[in-house]
Amino acid sequence: MSVDGARLWKLNQRLLGVVMDACTAELTALGLETKEFFVLAEVENSPYPAQIASALLLPRASVTVYVRNLVTKGLVEREIDEADLRRHRLVLSDAGVTARDRALATLAAEYDRRLARITEQDRVDLQRILGQMLDLPE
């Protein structure tokens, strides 16, 4: 049996879309748009807007708007970078950490609902396979 990479890609994208759609109400209750959530969730790994844009495959101008919104909402703060005083780095405020963690918990619960449809062994295999595809250690 042949497996079509493009079909797998589309199925994965569709699954992620369905999970995100199911979480929209909770994100809205947290005061977040979907893409704002993605930016919020990326701040700790990528504290500079250009890094966020690269990591999330978003235009820099869009990330600038999302960051501005998150700062206005009190979820993200700008700090002067001690290594380069000309730059500002982004950090999550306490409210930002709380919002991010609640949103991630909502996404995890919805994704877990989907994972419950497959066997425990299939979940273990899926984790292993995804890790291999990302070149992550098990």
TrEMBL record:
Residues 1-135 form the HTH marR-type domain. PROSITE patterns: HTH_MARR_2. SMART domains: HTH_MARR. Pfam families: MarR_2. InterPro entries: HTH_MarR-typ, MarR/SlyA-like, WH-like_DNA-bd_sf, WH_DNA-bd_sf. It comes from the Bacteria. This is MarR family transcriptional regulator.
